[in-house]
Design brief:
The chain is of the alpha+beta class. The protein is built from 3 helices and 3 strands, in the order E-E-E-H-H-H. Helix 2 (51-61) runs antiparallel to helix 3 (65-88).
């Protein structure tokens, strides 16, 4: 399912997420600090989800509205632009 990782988003030293070229998560770390969840395995459970699914999760369960907006601006939109660029050329 996963292609070679194409896009990595780092959040300081406490977290990151790596997407494949189709927008699916191949690795994640530190998302328990971004979402209201008692699930200690949230990072592992994100693997295989699409960037659109993660955006919805952060919108509904994010600890901070600002974190959701930062994710949209710096990860979601940028990844979609990169995917579109790669699909066209």
């Amino acid at each position: 399912m996963a292609n070679n990782p194409k896009y990595r988003f780092s959040r300081g030293e406490d977290g990151y997420i790596i997407f494949d070229s189709k927008g699916y998560i191949v690795e994640a770390k530190g998302f328990s600090s971004l979402m209201w969840s008692s699930n200690l395995k949230i990072d592992e459970e994100l693997v295989g989800k699409h960037v659109d699914e993660l955006a919805e999760m952060l919108k509904k369960n994010g600890k901070s509205r600002d974190e959701y907006f930062r994710f949209e601006a710096y990860v979601h939109v940028e990844l979609l632009k990169e995917m579109l660029k790669n699909a066209n050329g």
